[in-house]
Amino acid sequence: MGIIKEFQDFAVKGNVVDMAVGIIIGGAFGTIVKSLVDDIIMPPIGKMMGNIDFSDLFINLTDIQYDSLDAAREAGAPVIAYGSFINNVISFLIVAWAVFMLVKAMNSLKKKAEEEPAAAPEPPKEQVLLTEIRDLLKARG
Fold first, then answer.
1. pLDDT tens for each residue of 93-126
2. DSSP 8-state class, residue 60
3. pLDDT per residue as tens digits for the range 48-80
4. What is the DSSP code string of 28-51?
5. Domain limits for position 97
6. For 68, phi and psi rounded to 5 degrees?
7. Domain containing 90 — which CATH number?
8. What are the b/e assignments for 27-44, b being 16+ CB within 10 Å?
9. Structural domain total, the chain
10. Are 54 and 83 in contact (CB under 8 A)?
11. Model pTM?
12. SS3 for 79?
């Protein structure tokens, strides 16, 4: 029974829930970045390079010619889809940059919190009263 209790304690902790939320948001962020690369970034780059569609760039490993990557895949032909690879590398770089900036911001906030001096704890009432008595006695002379 000890291992079940240990697992239950682990699964119910806030860190596991936070991690699950992070994974879900990360997955959604990945789809947004993929769309950004495929639909926003690569079309202008392809246009500048002579109307190239990067997602359709491939090396055909057979003697049969195919008009598109989809046609080659549909026929079951072995291909090296380097255009898709380029898109995925760009997506990765964008996600890596975003994670880097997030970690950098978190570290900055953590460092700032560590640099702030901790407020001195309030002294006990007896000490405050003794200090006031001492100050009054000094003032008397």
1. 888 888 888 888 888 888 887 777 767 788 888 8
2. E
3. 888 887 888 999 999 999 999 999 999 999 999
4. HHHHHHHHIIIIIIHHHHHHHTTS
5. 2-140
6. -150, 165
7. 1.10.1200.120
8. eeeeeebbeebbeebbee
9. 1
10. yes
11. 0.59
12. strand
